């Protein structure tokens, strides 16, 4: 009873599939609700019969009860009924399977979704834009998510937008959907992919078309060349150290492809697989010792001095 009571609590549940924000998510929830209703009805009937039989035919003495062969009608009924129920579920499910597995409409916007240990990369090939962890989409427009992995098997899942789909090395998967509401919706990798699997998160940011176009145009701009003393020194250090071997900042010599692209790093609300809020304290904490705050991180501890941390934080916060 306590467990049942706790399920009724009204605590925020942002990663819930019961709040669909796309056509794909709504179709999955409709099927799930049918199965829940059928499961509850069948469960109540079965348990009711068990309780009735236990009371009605409980042992009243030590005599052996009459031995009978069985009841043919009842046996046929309990064999046929599950077949009918499963057949009904199959009847509802098959059209959804064929619809969601069909090729995306030709007018869809393509987004390449690439899983890395332990962050998500989002590429918009038609606009030549590459970002990390925050998936921007326009409301009301169909998008075709093309799923890949650069290392191990990951599973892309943003509950408000729909079901899980694996990102597999050497194989391409697809999800196509049409967001129907603006807002920010969290998700995370659902396939155990290594030490920091639980820290591999992402966010979908669904925007009006005009806001999305403005975001896309800003992402296409070259990186900001900072003028403030600390930020300028940080830029120099970034572009002459090992940072530039892994990260890209448009318009600079930093063209690394291993880690997330940082051209407009400061415009993102989160970083490091969306586990940290993007602010100076968290950036400094991350740069000081990445594996300490995100176990298994491929970014090592470079043993930066306090001054190097200061100027790098200033530079990253200037990348608007």
Write structural notes for this entry.
The structure is a single chain. About 40% of the residues lie in helices and about 20% in strands. It has 9 helices and 12 strands. It has a 5-stranded mixed β-sheet with strand order 3-2-1-5-8. Strand 1 and strand 2 form a beta hairpin. Helix 2 packs antiparallel against helix 3. The longest helix has about 35 residues. The radius of gyration is 27 Å and the shape is elongated. The mean pLDDT is about 90.
Q: In which range does the helix fraction lie?
A: 25-40%
Give the terminus-to-terminus CA distance.
Answer: 52 Å
The succession of helices and strands, N to C, reads HHHEEEEEEEEEEHHHEEHHH
Shape: elongated
Strand order of the largest sheet: 3-2-1-5-8
Give a short account of the largest sheet.
5 strands, mixed
Proportion of β residues? Answer: 15-25%
The number of strands is 12
Low-confidence stretches: none
Summary?
The protein is of the alpha+beta class and 320 residues long.
List keywords for this structure.
12 strands; 320 residues; five-stranded mixed β-sheet; elongated; 18% strand; 38% helix; single chain; alpha+beta
Task: Record the SSE blueprint.
Blueprint: H1 2-6, H2 23-56, H3 72-101, E1 109-116, E2 119-124, E3 129-132, E4 134-138, E5 143-149, E6 154-156, E7 165-167, E8 173-177, E9 183-188, E10 201-207, H4 209-219, H5 229-240, H6 243-246, E11 270-271, E12 276-277, H7 280-288, H8 290-293, H9 306-318
Parallel strand pairs: 1-5, 4-10
Antiparallel strand pairs: 1-2, 2-3, 5-8, 6-7, 9-10, 11-12
């Amino acid at each position: 009873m306590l467990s049942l009571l706790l399920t009724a609590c009204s605590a925020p549940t942002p990663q819930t599939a019961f709040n669909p924000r796309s056509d794909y998510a709504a179709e999955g929830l409709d099927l799930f609700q049918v199965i829940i209703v059928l499961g509850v009805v069948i469960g109540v009937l079965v348990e009711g019969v068990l309780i009735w039989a236990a009371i009605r035919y409980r042992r009243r003495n030590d005599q052996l009860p009459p031995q009978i062969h069985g009841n043919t009608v009842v046996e046929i009924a309990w064999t046929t009924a599950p077949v009918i129920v499963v057949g009904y579920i199959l009847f509802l499910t098959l059209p959804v399977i064929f619809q969601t597995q069909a090729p995306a409409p030709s007018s869809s916007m393509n987004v390449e979704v690439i899983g890395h240990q332990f962050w998500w990369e989002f590429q918009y090939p038609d606009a030549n834009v590459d970002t990390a962890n925050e998936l921007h989409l326009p409301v009301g427009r169909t998008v075709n998510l093309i799923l890949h992995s650069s290392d191990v098997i990951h599973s892309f899942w943003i509950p408000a937008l729909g079901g899980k789909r694996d990102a597999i090395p050497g194989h391409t998967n697809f999800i196509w959907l049409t967001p129907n509401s603006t807002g920010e919706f969290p998700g995370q990798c659902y396939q155990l992919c290594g030490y920091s699997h639980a820290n591999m998160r992402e966010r979908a940011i669904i925007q009006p078309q005009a806001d999305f176009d403005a975001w896309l145009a800003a992402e296409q701009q070259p990186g900001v060349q900072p003028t403030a003393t600390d930020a300028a020194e940080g830029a120099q250090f970034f572009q002459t150290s090992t940072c530039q071997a892994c990260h890209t900042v448009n318009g600079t010599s930093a063209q690394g492809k291993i880690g997330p692209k940082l051209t407009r790093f400061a415009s993102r609300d989160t970083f490091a697989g969306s586990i940290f809020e993007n602010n100076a304290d968290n950036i400094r904490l991350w740069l000081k010792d990445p594996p300490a705050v995100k176990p298994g991180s491929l970014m090592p501890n470079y043993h930066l001095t306090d001054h190097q941390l200061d100027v790098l934080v200033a530079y990253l916060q200037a990348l608007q």
